[in-house]
Amino acid sequence: MSLTSLSVSELCALSRKKEVKAEEIVLSFLNKIQEQDEKISAFLLVLEEKALARAREIDHKKEKGKLAGIPIAIKDNILTRGIRTTCASRILENFIPAYSATVVERLEKEDAVIIGKTNMDEFAMGSSTENSAFFITKNPWDLRRVPGGSSGGSAAAVAAEETPASLGSDTGGSVRQPAAFCGIVGLKPTYSRVSRYGLVAFASSLDQIGPLTRTVEDSALLLQVIAGWDGRDSTLSSQPVPDYLKEMKEGLGSIKVAYLKENVIKAIDPEVKEIYSNTLKRLEEMGAELHEIDFPSWEYALACYYILAPSEASSNLARYDGVRYGFRHSPAESLKEMYLSTRTEGFGPEVKRRILLGTFALSSGYYDAYYLKAAKTRNIICQEFKEAFKEVDFILTPTTPEPAFLIGEKEEPITMYLSDVFTVTANLAGIPAISIPAGLTKQNFPVGLQVMANYFQESLLFKLAFLLEKKVKFKKK
Amino acid sequence: MRQKQKIDIDHICALANLKLSEEGKARLEPQLVKIVEWVNKLEELELDLTQGEVYTPISFPLPLRPDEVQPSISSEDALFNSPETGGKFIKVPKVIEEK
C-alpha cells in the first residue's frame, strides 16, 4: 500500500493508531513530488526541509491535532509567514509575508504540515493556469491538457497524489472548475463562512477559500478546521460551525433536486450532458424528487460577473505600485513614472486586461451602464436563488461545459471566460457549491458535477455529495 | 442598430496607472471592445437603475471583536518587503519639485 494513494481521513486513522509517523507521511509525498512534479509543474515552491522538520516536531508531541502530519499544499495567493507568496505574478516574485492567513494558522494548529505553494493563474485571473507568470501546470490525466484554474496547481497536486489535500480560492469557479478537470472534489463554501484574512484580494465580494481533496469526507474534514469567525475578517459570519463529518453521515431523508432547463445546457459537450442526465436519473432512482427550474437570469450571470469581478480587481490591484512591497521599476525619474513602469512591467496580459476592463466599467460616464447595472442584476440572480431554495433543497448542474481542454486551445479571452458559465452564479449569490467527480468521457477525461445548496447548508451539500460519491464508480488517477 | 462600442484606451490606461506600448494598445483595445460588447448583453434586461436594491454580500449584522489592544506586525516586518528603505522609512523618487 502506498501512503500517497490514501485520503486525509485514512492517513489520520493510521496516524492515530500510531501505524505511521508524520515524517513517513510527509516524506512519501515529498518523494512523489520529486518523482513527477517536473512533468506536472503543480508547485511553485516545495518546502522539503521545513515540512520534514515540522513532521519530526509533530512526531515528538504528546497531544496531537486532528490533522497530525497531514501534508497540505497552499495556493500561492494565501499568505504563509516567512514563505514566499507570489500570486504567480512577477510583481510579487520576491514577496515574503509577515503573517499567515487564518486558514493556514488553523491548519497548522491542528498539526497539518504545509508542504508547498501551488501554481495558479496570476492573481487568480484565469481558468487554465496558463496565466501564471512562471510556468504552465499540466493536467495529470493528460499532460497536453490544462488542469483548469485558477487553482490549477492545487488541483493537479491532489490528483497526482503529490499531496492528499490542498487549499484554493474560488472567485468565479476557481476551486470547482479545476477540481472537475482533475477528477477530484472542490468546495466553495458560503460567502463569509471561511476567513479571507491573508488571502490576496481579487474581487472581495466574491472571493472564498475552499479545500480541494480526493473525497467528500476530506472536504468536510478540512472545512471543519478552516471555517468560523476569527475577528480579523470583517465580512465573516459568527454562526457556529456544525460538526460536518457527523452530520454528513446522517440520513438525508426525502430531497427535492432542481435541474437546469434544456436552454441553459444546450451548448455543452454531449458527453458532459450525458453524464449530467445519468446522474439525475440515478438520483431519481435513489428517491429524489426532481424539478426542472427556470432561471431567467442565468444567461446574464457571466456578463454580470465579468463586469463586477474586474471592477473590484481594478480597485484591489491598485495597491501594487512598487512602494511597500513587490517588484519596483528602478531607476524612475518621478513617483508617477515609477508607478506606471512598475505596474506595466509587473503585471501579465490577463491581469492588465481585467484591470482595464474594470477601470472602464467604473469610469465616469460608464459606471451606471456597467457597474451599477451589473450590481442590480446580481441582486436579481440572488433573489432567483432564494426563490428556488424555497422549493428545492439542491440545484444540480454540470461543473463545466466541457472536460479539460488542450493547452493553448483558448486564446480568445471570451472563449476562456465561457468555462465559468455554471460556476459564477454561486459566487454572485454567495451560496455554497461543491464539485464532485461524476464520470469519465470515452477518452478518459474526468467530468464534474456541481451541487449547490442554500446559505450555510454545507452539511446538506456534503450529505448529498457523499451519497453520490458512493454511487459513482470512478477510477482514480 | 447599436453603435460600435468605443473605448478611449489612453484615458483608461491613465486611470489605471498602466503605460502600454503602441503595439500593446493595438492588441488590447480590440479585445476590450469585444469583451465590452459581450457584456452589453445586460442591456436586454430592462432594469430601472433608479429602482431596486444593489446587491450587498452580507445581509446579517456584522459581528465585532472586543475592543482590546492586540499586537500588530513590527515596523521591521512591515518594511521588510519594500524595494528601497532608509531607516524606518520607505524611499521613493522625489515628489516635491525644486524651484
Structure report:
The complex is a heterodimer of chains A (477) and B (99). Chain A contains 17 helices and eleven strands. Chain A is α/β, with parallel strands linked by helices. Chain A folds into two domains: 3-253 and 396-471, Amidase signature (AS) domain (Amidase signature (AS) enzymes); 300-371, no CATH class. An eleven-stranded mixed β-sheet of chain A has the order 1-3-2-4-6-5-10-11-9-7-8. The longest helix of chain A is centred in the C-terminal third of the chain and has 24 residues, at 368-391. Chain A is globular and about 70 Å long. The relative contact order of chain A is 0.13. Chain B is mainly α. Chain B has a domain at 9-44. Chain B has a two-stranded antiparallel sheet. The longest helix of chain B has 18 residues, at 22-39. Chain B starts with 8 loop residues before the first helix and ends in a 9-residue tail after the last strand. Chains A and B meet through α11, α12, α13, α14 and α15 of A and α1, α2 and α3 of B.
CATH class of the largest domain in chain A: Alpha Beta
Helix and strand content put the structural class of chain A at alpha/beta
What does the main sheet of chain A amount to?
A: 11 strands, mixed
- In whole angstroms, the N-to-C terminal distance of chain B is 56 Å
- What would the principal axes of the Cα set say about the shape of chain B? flat
Question: In the CATH classification, which architecture of the largest domain in chain A applies?
Answer: Alpha-Beta Complex
Distance from N terminus to C terminus of chain A (CA atoms, Å) equals: 16 Å
Q: How big a fraction of the residues of chain A is strand?
A: 5-15%
For the sheet with most strands of chain B, the description reads: 2 strands, antiparallel
Helicity range of the residues of chain A?
A: 40-55%
Oligomer: heterodimer
What is the CATH topology descriptor of the largest domain in chain A?
Amidase signature (AS) enzymes
